[in-house]
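Q: Joint fold for the lines below.
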Amino acid sequence: MTSVLEVREVGFTYPDGTCALQALSLGFARGRRTALLGRNGAGKSTLFALLNGIEKPKNGKVFFAGIPLGYDRNSLRQLRRQVGVVFQDPDTQLFSASIREDVSFGPVNLGLSRVEVSHRVSTALEAVGLTALAERPTHALSYGEKKRACIAGVLAMEPEVLILDEPTAGLDPPMAAELLRLLNGLHQQGITIILATHDIDFAFSWADDISVLQEGTLAFNSVADDIEAVERSFPQLGLELPWVYEVFRQLQSQGMISGDQPPRSRAELLARLQA
Amino acid sequence: MLLDRYAYSNRWRYLGPVEKGLLTGLALSAALAARAPLAAVVVFVFMAGLTVFGARIPLLSYLRLLLLPAGFLLAGVAGLALSFTGGDILLWTLPGTGLSVFSSHAGLYQALLVLARSIGAVAALYFLALTTPMTEIIGLLRRLRVPALLLELMVLAYRQIFIFLQIAREMRLAQASRLGYATTGNSFRSLGVLGANLYLRVHQRSQMLHRSLVSRGYEDDLRWLERDYPRSNRNLLLAIFGGGSLLLLALLMPV
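A: Joint structure:
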């Protein structure tokens, strides 16, 4: 399996001496959905900054499509065209008072033609369901709408890899579900998605691969439906098991469910029970 | 932000910014160039009338907005009209001292002219500010070849005002809920802490903003797609005619 993005043995220390990442090696496979779990300060945001070339690792290397990142202007431009990051707080991402203008920022920076930019902006706004609000001033939008505007701003650059830092934080359940649908749609278009979250149940219901960062190192890395590996590692890492896995085990031991593959979501579990 | 809300919701929101900007520019020149106070008052009445009856900004809100510059205006005008050193009208003497307040006909006329010009200019600028969102005013300035650096500052400052206000509101609420404003002493202390932390928070946010801009390909300048407006020759002519008439009036009306 080829990694579209990969870090090898990277270390990163902030100027104030905080060691954020140490000798971390991790690859993200093309076209997969990866959920990155980890407590606050585990190094998720730092990793994302490295993957987008915003920060440069102190040791080790970052690879895009097998090629080590260059940090000159052209290489970075190339990278950022292909790897988009949606940061956690939408208010630090939206710079313009108009949603349409903000979304057009990325594509304009790519040097696209006016027609192409305006086409991409419309498509991106459509994808996140903000077409009707495009003319509203940014400060008049709700938190969830701002979040979607941020995603549109990145989608308009048509990246191959989409990185989201805790996208569901601060969203109410219907908005989070809406976001999930959006991400799955993007995944079906072949976009690689990497997402940091604290929500273990959400991670397992959505992701193909699960990685856990702990104190700047990789503590767990596996496909999400390897239930044995999860059961072995998660308690040691102080993480709760996803509830579907626990319920599945219980049902399995009582012979009430067949098969070895764990269901990943409530819907899947219910479907299996009815079958 | 009253001003901002109307800019997005008035009846003339979707008229071209060029036409509105042109009218504003001409009216502003007329107000500032007016030789007779009456001419500047005409500019005020005309522009205020357009804003209230044309763009349908509620009269009460408009009057309230006019109060904002009133303080500065009165202070400035008082300085012109009054004098402690002498003039042809003696207004008042502080008993027991030689301190007197004078005014003069020339000074009063000067004050009247400044007052009239100022309210004319305020009405002209309010017309643009109340009918045209900031982002479009900036787009207009860009077309007028205002330096990009200045425009970027305007864009960022404008957006940050709202973030700044929001953080300040949240912090104040958090302080108030822990009795931060229960006594005068507490209030002073809380306000000080709020100010200091506000600065830190805003600084932190600006760094985050920079990061996110960089990740979207920001290099040296902020650029984005401007909105297209259907050009209306009729409105353009109306703006030139209206603004031009004001300017002529201002220049020709005898003192």
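Q: Anything notable?
A: The radius of gyration of chain B is 23 Å. Residues 112 and 233 of chain B are 38 Å apart (CA to CA).
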